[in-house]
Every structure is written in structure tokens, then in C-alpha cells.
Amino acid sequence: MISALVRTFNLVSKLSLAATIGAGLISGDALAQQATPMPGSAKAIFGAVTLPTQGLPQSFGFYAKGCLSGAVALPTDGPTWEAMRLSRNRRWGRPEMIALLERLSRDAAKYDGWPGILVGDISQPRGGPMFNGHASHQIGLDADVWLTPMPSRTLTAAERETLPFTSMLAKDKFLTINDKVWTPEHARLLMRAASYPEVERIFVNPAIKKKMCDTWTGDRANLGKLRPEYGHDSHFHIRIRCPAGSANCKPQAPVAAGDGCDKSLAWWFTPAPWAKPKPSEKPPAKPREVMVSDLPKACQAVLNAPSVASARAATFGAKAAAAGTPTGAMPVSSADTGSTPPGTVPQQ
Ligand SMILES: [Zn+2]
Known about the structure:
Blueprint: H1 2-22, H2 42-47, E1 58-62, E2 65-69, E3 72-73, E4 77-78, E5 81-83, E6 92-93, H3 95-111, E7 117-119, E8 142-146, H4 157-162, H5 184-195, E9 199-204, H6 206-215, E10 226-228, E11 235-240, H7 263-266, H8 298-304, H9 318-322
Parallel strand pairs: 5-7, 9-10
Antiparallel strand pairs: 1-2, 3-6, 4-5, 8-11, 9-11
């Protein structure tokens, strides 16, 4: 069991690392790579689980420390979305998150001149910490969306693994948007995502936030939901609030009032956030690896709970589709997996 786990881990680790390096996206991302996980390692154990639990969706704990039961998968394809990096098996989330992504994709196509979205990492089948790429995404309420529009054709599974990320930043300039890649449609997509009441935060690169502050001429009531964060220059990260009735989901304080185009943004354009520790300073102690026992107690029960029969059975809209009810979603593919760009994440 353990050796199978370690083998799975090594394989996944190599694949992820290859994908990361292939995409040339290392700096600014919190990549927690290591050769051998400790026994009890939460990311090794949650990362090896391939299917969600049966039962109703529940989030346990916080965005950056928790787990998830009753997850559903975003279908790999829809009329206005495609799920990316399917081998990662991270297209799982709360039904509220999946519904939000599908709605965003439809609205963006209908109103914002954005042909459809490419969806990156959501959560693992039972949430929990990941081998690489994210501190959060643990309770099914975070999702990454590429800042690359969906192509007009269906990408193959191989293309979904290798399509490179496109940074919105100008090369060789400090925190500056590349106006050759940034468009008004990008701005509309972000504000569309911010417009939904259940969306509490959207993490973007500080240069993107500044661009929005400088150029957005529409209603600025939701601009404050756009939060500057390291990385996030080729994708943005949507975080929704704990759904009603989620007693075990730990909420995050709402963002401060205002558009956020203030001192808190200006700070990112000072040396402070980018300063390397001085050689005289002791490097910070490496944090101890997170164990399953560090997570909310319920997470061990989530790991022990019986699985759904298949990924297909737990794909969002599958039941309705089986009953012949139109859902707006395309037929579900049999691919077992899901997801994205590495990104630091945001506990702010
Ligand atoms: Zn993210």
C-alpha cells in the first residue's frame, strides 16, 4: 500500500515537474516538490485518491487547510469551456463551484466577447493539500481559469497537457502589462467573474490589478474583489464563499470596502515584496510537512469513506443527463482527470 502510494507519488511528481518546467513557470509559484513524502503526509495520501466520496458535498476546514466530500467533476468539455491538464485529476469541486464556472463560461461568451474559458486546477477528488502548485484549493471552493481564451476547436488530451501558459506581463519590465496580449476582453472576463455574489476574491498579478484600476471605466463596486498576489499572470484564481449550510467550512473575512486601488496595491510596486532575504538573516525554518492529522478531524473519515462508482457518475450534470434533462453541459467524457497552472496561493 505504502510502496504503491510512493510509486504513485513519484510518478505524479515527475509529471507535474515536467509540466511545470515545460511551461517555464517556476518563479513566483510555491512548488513544494520533494523526493519522498513522510508517512502520513496529507499531500501524498490525498494526492493518491482517484475518486470522490459518495454522499452530499461538504467542505471541512479552510481553503488552505481542509478537505472535501461529495465532490463533483467539471465535465472535461462544454459548449463554452474546456478543462485543462487532465492528468492532474483536479477538476473536482463543490457543485456550487462547478456551476459557477459553467455560468461564467456562458456569460463571458454571451456578453464579454470571450469565446469560452480554459479551466485549470479546482480540487483533488477529496480536496486536501496537493503535491505541487497551490497552498489552497483544498475544500472545493477555489478554481483557476486561464487568461487564454478557449480555442475554437476541441483540444486533444495531449494538447491540454502541453499548451503553454501565456503571461500577461511584459518581459524585462517590472510588473508591467504586455499590451500586445492584454485586451479589453480580459478585463471584462475578470469583472464578470467578480460580479457574482458568491465570488469573494479573485487573485491576479499586481500588474493586472493595476491595469484594471487604471483602465476599468464601468461599475467599480466589485473591483475590490480583485486581489493582487504573486504569480497569477497567466491565470486568475476564483474563490467562492462557504455555501449556505456549510457548518464545517471555515469562512474568510470579506475583503475591505473600496476598489483596492490604494496603498495596498502601491506596496506591490515597492521593493519590499520582492526583496531577497539578506545573507546575514537566518533563512526561515522549513515548515514541517502537513500530515493528515493536522487537518480537521473529519478529513480522516473523508479518506476512509466509500468512493463513487466512477468519475463519470460523479460528473456535474451526469444525473440530469442520464434522466434526459438538458443541463447545458455537453456529454461527459470518460477521462478521469482535471487541471492548471501552478500558482501561489493566497490566503489573504
Ligand atoms: Zn489557484
